[in-house]
Specification:
This protein has 148 residues and is mainly alpha-helical. Helix content is 85%, strand content 0%. It has one domain. It is rod-shaped.
Length: 148
């Protein structure tokens, strides 16, 4: 390569690089100390809003999938306990119904003398009805627990 060709090629390269740098600077926005056109600000704001809505949709999608997965995981973990918990609940309620039945049966025993025409006839009938009701609830609760 001759020295004259080297200078010519170097000059052409510098001019082309200068044009490229000038074009990129013109399309990239205003330089320091220059005012930003309103249209450019509006375009940038619209792009930022679009990016924000896209990010919001992505985050919402990820959060909903995560919550569904967590719900399924917790549900799978608690499924065996729900059966046992249901049986335990029926037995505990049956026990309390049995306690109320015993309470009303004791009161019924105290009022047994006036079951026909005594002064506590109404109390005897009410105690009889409540004892029967709570005995039924106690027995049915234990039977339902046994069927599970």
């Amino acid at each position: 390569m001759k020295p004259s060709e080297l200078g010519r090629r170097l000059g052409i390269g510098v001019r082309v690089a200068g044009r490229i740098a000038h074009d990129r600077a013109a399309h990239s926005g205003p330089g320091p100390g220059q005012a930003v056109p309103r249209q450019t600000v509006a375009n940038l704001a619209a792009e930022v809003r679009g990016a924000q809505s896209d990010m919001r949709q992505q985050v919402t999608g990820v959060a909903s999938r995560a919550s569904r997965s967590a719900g399924r995981g917790v549900g799978g973990f608690l499924r065996p306990f729900s059966r046992v918990g249901g049986i335990l609940w029926l037995e505990v309620t049956g026990f309390f119904f049995g306690m109320f039945a015993a309470w009303f049966a004791l009161d019924l025993w105290k009022a047994r003398q006036s079951y026909v025409h005594g002064p506590d006839h109404q109390r005897f009938l009410i105690d009889c009805a409540l004892t029967a009701l709570f005995v039924y609830l106690c027995v049915s609760s234990f039977l339902r627990a046994q069927r599970r």
